[in-house]
Each structure stands twice: as C-alpha cells, then as structure tokens.
Write the structure tokens for this entry.
Amino acid sequence: MSVKIRLQRHGKKGKPFYWIVAADARAKRDGKYLEKIGTYNPNVNPAIIDLDVDGAVKWLQNGAQPTDTAKNILSYKGAMLKNHLAGGVRKGALTQEQADEKFAAWVEAKEAKIADKAAGLSKAESEAKAKALAAEKAVNEARIEAAKPVVEEVAETEEAVEAAPDTIDEAQQKATE
C-alpha cells in the first residue's frame, strides 16, 4: 500500500478549508484517511497552517509521498527540512543536538518573516483606510462648497418673491383706482 500526504477539501463552496492527511493513494480525495496531520486555511492572508511537524516527518520517513501542494506546505512549515536533518543524523553527518539547533534557528527566521509580512499587510491596510478617509473628506468639502452658492441664490430668490407681492398689490390698487 502506497501512502500519500495530501489535502482533503472541506468548507463550503468558494470558501475552501483543507485537512492535511496521510491516506492510501487508492482512496478518494475526501475519503478514508490514515491520520490527520494538520489543517490549511487559504481564505486569510497570510494563510493559516496548523501542522504536526513530527507526525509529518514520521510519515515521510516511513515512505509517504506528498503531493505537490502538500509538499509546498510541508516545506513552508519545515517538515521537509526536519526530515532532511533527520536523514543527516541517521547517516552520522551531524548530531541530534546540531540538527535541533539548525531547525530551531530556521523556525525563528521563518516566524520573523511571517510576522513582517503580517505587519506590512496591516500597515498597507491602515494606509489605504487613511487615503480613503482623506479622499472622502475632500469629496465632502467639495460638495459643501458646491452647495453654498445654491443657498445664496435661493436667498436672493426669496427676497425677490417677497418684493414681488408688494408690486402686485400696488398694481391691483392702481387697477382699482
């Protein structure tokens, strides 16, 4: 039996949510699986990936083959690196402590990179909101300026209407005389 590490789709139409599973290669995409390794939510930016790295490494060492997308996710979370380092430990190229130090350093760098991206996205969002607010204020000020002359013209028209009845009354009095 060949085992694949792949994504199993969940969620509603247009809002995918995936489970990362180890499954028999002959099983259906959303069918029977051997073990759930993690979850992947691509609906947010940055995407949320919750992965049991040790479980994924265990399956990789037992011969499970990841699909292309699953391989990218495993690489992003460091499972592929940890598997590579474990191979180096088995061969005697480095000790377990050295491998753990390298993996911890990689994880710290990756978390810093993700935090920077999240900060950049929130900064860009706040700048976009500030620009939209400034544009809205400018439109409102222009609308107010455009409305002012109309108010003055209406006042002048009201004065003319008030003056008009006097002239009409005078015209009626002259007509009766």
Q: What stands out?
A: The chain is about 65% helix and 15% strand. Helices lie at 53-61, 68-77, 79-91, 96-176. The CA atoms of residues 46 and 118 lie 7 Å apart.
